[in-house]
Amino acid sequence: MSTFRAACVQLRSTDDVAENIRVTSDLIRAAHAKGARFIATPENTTLMAPDGGAKLERSFAEADDPALLAFCTLAEELGIWLLIGSLAIKVSESKTANRSFLIGPDGRIAARYDKIHLFDVQLPSGEKYRESNTVAGGGQAVTADLPWGRIGLTICYDLRFPQLYRALAKAGSFLLTVPSAFTETTGKAHWHTLLRARAIENGAFVVAPAQGGHHANGRRTYGHSLIVAPWGEVLAEAGTEPGVIVADIDPALSADARARVPNLEHDRPFSGP
């Protein structure tokens, strides 16, 4: 349960997979140089396509994905735990999975998580998203054990479903990952509040790397990658530019927060309404 340094890599990904791999790898190296042993990248790390059709054209099956091979090799080279927030993994001719990969310092995939909650929304700004048109939703909550304790994996829109985080916390997760590509509109309104709420109500660290800025496909993402402590303090925050933030994580602070407010032990079944 020793203290370790975690990092969020913030990106402004494009539809050029090779360039995104290069930029992401450079920033992972920069995070490692700052002493990070657990490094997380955002949702859509290697592909922000202009539409669902373009995403399918540029996606690969897991066994053929060049990014996954590159990141596994890099994790082994640096001896780090690396969470690739998500890649678009082709699972059929018409659908991808929005899949997180946790890669160990041996270069092997330690866990996979497919985004459960898909972003089908029309915002007051006129922005319209139908993720389910081209993405197959997952159905399994996922935890993984690191040297410092257990973590729970989620992606972006999952953040609005607190029952998922409660289940991960009750399964022993002291840290929750939320790689995201929040829209500028929803990010300004809700990003900080929701992330701090998930940390506080579960007594858990939250590591939330984000996409940020104006992408070539016209989409605007909010940025502001965050690392939040179990008591709700923001330990590190990015702006809107690509880069790296780091924070030192003491897993004992999660146990301390849960002892001070033992709400995870106080869930009770109820009927109605």
How would you portray this structure in words?
The chain has 273 residues and is α/β, with parallel strands linked by helices. The chain has a 6-stranded mixed beta sheet. Strands 8-9-10-11-14-15 form a 6-stranded mixed beta sheet, with helices on one face. A two-stranded antiparallel sheet has the order 6-7. The chain has one domain: Nitrilase/N-carbamoyl-D-aminoacid amidohydrolase. It is built from 6 helices and 16 strands.
Query: Could you say which structural class the secondary elements and strand pairing correspond to?
Result: alpha/beta
**Whole-Å distance between the termini?**
42 Å
Examine the coordinates and then state which fold CATH places here, giving the name of the CATH topology. Answer: Nitrilase/N-carbamoyl-D-aminoacid amidohydrolase
Number of strands: 16
CATH architecture: 4-Layer Sandwich
Query: Over the alpha carbons, how many angstroms does the gyration radius reach?
Result: 17 Å
CATH homologous superfamily descriptor: Carbon-nitrogen hydrolase
Tell me roughly what share of residues is in helical segments. 25-40%
Main sheet makeup: 6 strands, mixed
Overall structural domain count:
1
